[in-house]
Design goal:
48% helix; 10% strand
Length: 77
């Protein structure tokens, strides 16, 4: 294992940015998608953001390498 990183403590910001993108661009999207689609995704994004903000949900990334890296692994954060 090269790296283990938890994104959960700030992932609500990502979900809120996706929600903002959805609402900001809805006028262009509504010709392709119906109101039910909008409500479903808005609810999903906001409820997921709430679970991360309340620390009820986690997101982790684990990086593995088969034989390790000679020069080591540098995580970009």
């Amino acid at each position: 294992m090269e790296d283990w990183h938890s994104f959960g403590h700030y992932y609500d910001r990502t979900l809120m940015a996706w929600h903002k993108n959805l609402t900001d661009n809805w006028d262009q999207l509504k010709s392709v998608y119906d109101e039910r689609f909008y409500r479903m995704w808005a609810y999903y994004l906001l409820s997921c953001a709430g679970t991360f903000r309340a620390r009820r949900n986690q997101l982790r990334q684990i990086v593995f390498s088969k034989k390790g890296r000679e020069s080591g692994y540098e995580a970009i954060r």
